[in-house]
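[Discussion] Sanity-checking designs against the backbone

I'm trying to build intuition for which residues belong where. Below is a structure token string of 191 positions. I'd appreciate it if someone posts a full sequence so I can compare it with mine line by line.
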């Protein structure tokens, strides 16, 4: 039971880290930059947010008792640029994250081995969490990369800044060894 509780705590911290990372990237942009699409094959940040929200709502609404691909989900529509304002974008973002985090926070360790379904394919809850951790971090990486490209030299790094690894490592190694989640320090910096 200890390992499963530890897993849940770790997963929650990692998801929160990626949520804040995405928010800090988007906060650096001018509102109109959230809607930039470089070509017809790329999605704007707003479209990526719309897709993430749609995925979260579908996957995590009643996820223990119903298939993660809900009948009401229109995945193709998630890739149509329909969000028009920064406020609407963050409403979508928060709606998806709230649904997901409520589901994650409601989990008990003994439920992690329960089988749930996504498109009729069985997953343990742990597998579903891992699947979504990879999926969400993939798209948040796109958001961060896109934001960094749009800001160019005005970008404020969200991780170890370029050419600062030596000083970053010096600071880390100057402290006593400790057991903590790798996101603990990073979450404090991002808040």
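Best answer:
Here's mine. Compare freely.
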């Amino acid at each position: 039971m200890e390992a499963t509780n530890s897993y849940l705590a770790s997963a929650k911290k990692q998801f929160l880290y990626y949520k804040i990372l995405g928010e800090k990237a988007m906060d650096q942009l001018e509102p109109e930059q959230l809607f930039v699409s470089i070509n017809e094959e790329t999605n704007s940040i707003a479209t990526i947010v719309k897709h993430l929200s749609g995925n979260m709502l579908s996957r995590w609404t009643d996820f223990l008792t119903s298939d993660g691909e809900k009948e009401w989900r229109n995945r193709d529509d998630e890739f149509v640029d329909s969000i028009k304002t920064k406020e609407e974008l963050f409403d979508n973002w928060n709606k998806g994250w709230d649904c997901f985090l409520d589901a994650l926070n409601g989990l008990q360790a003994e439920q992690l081995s329960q089988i749930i379904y996504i498109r009729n394919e069985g997953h343990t809850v742990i597998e579903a969490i891992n699947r979504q951790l990879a999926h969400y971090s993939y798209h948040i990486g796109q958001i961060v990369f896109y934001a960094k490209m749009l800001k160019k030299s005005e970008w404020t790094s969200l991780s170890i800044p370029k050419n600062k690894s030596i000083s970053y490592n010096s600071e880390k190694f100057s402290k006593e060894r400790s057991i903590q989640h790798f996101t603990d320090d990073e979450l404090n910096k991002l808040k």
